[in-house]
Write a structure and sequence with these properties.
- This protein has about 190 residues and is α/β, with parallel strands linked by helices.
- It is built from six helices and seven strands; from the N terminus they run βαβαββαββαβαα.
- Strands 1, 2, 3, 4, 5, 6 and 7 form a seven-stranded mixed β-sheet that branches.
- α3 packs across α4.
Length: about 190
């Protein structure tokens, strides 16, 4: 008799794990180790889709009998992709770019079910920041929070007071568009209607 399939989240992100818990979806988490370098000329959406797919496929090799879910989030301003900052100076550069402006947050989601290729899709949310002072940026960086976040900020954390407007799905900006995730998990048969 086959054991029931589990959902494996290919991520070490506490934010993604919390979003799934809040949605009542049971899972186990395993963080994949892949290169996250953007390829020359690679567009932001393609970059996010590729990383999500690579993460899902890598973890699916370890858990071939289960459903694997992976995601990758990219912040885009002026056509430039902002991943996780390399250091505090890079975080400051990113936050100055975002200050007083609109930017896009793209999260790609990939699902692998046994014996089938990855199914990958993405959502985009528009976010507008108020003007943020250099002092606010420095104080925020000093908390350490920006250092493992795309675009160097957490919308649900210390950057929350800077957000003037969000157009699109809020959970997408946190790191996992729950409407897309649940749709994909229904489609693959992991979640029942």
């Amino acid at each position: 008799m086959l054991a029931p399939r589990k959902l494996i989240l290919a991520s070490g992100s506490p934010r993604r794990q919390q979003l799934l818990r809040d949605a009542g979806i049971e899972f186990e988490a395993y963080a994949p180790d892949i290169s996250e370098e953007q390829r020359p000329g690679e567009q932001a959406t393609d970059y996010a889709l590729r990383l999500a797919r690579e993460k899902a496929e890598k973890v699916a090799k370890q858990f071939p009998q289960h459903v694997v879910l992976a995601a990758d989030t990219i912040v885009v301003v002026d056509g430039r992709s902002l991943g996780k900052p390399n250091d505090e100076r890079d975080a400051e550069r990113m936050l100055r770019l975002l200050s007083g402006r609109w930017h896009q947050v793209i999260t790609a989601v990939s699902v692998v079910v046994p014996r089938k290729p990855a199914h990958t899709n993405s959502r985009t949310t528009e976010v507008h920041f108020r003007d943020v002072t250099p002092r606010e940026i420095q104080e925020y960086i000093a908390t350490g929070e920006p250092m493992d976040k795309a675009g160097a900020y957490a919308i649900q954390g210390g950057a929350a007071p800077w957000v003037v407007r969000v157009e699109g799905e809020y959970s997408n900006v946190v790191g996992l568009p729950l409407s897309l995730v649940t749709e994909m998990l229904h489609t693959c048969g992991f979640l029942q209607s």
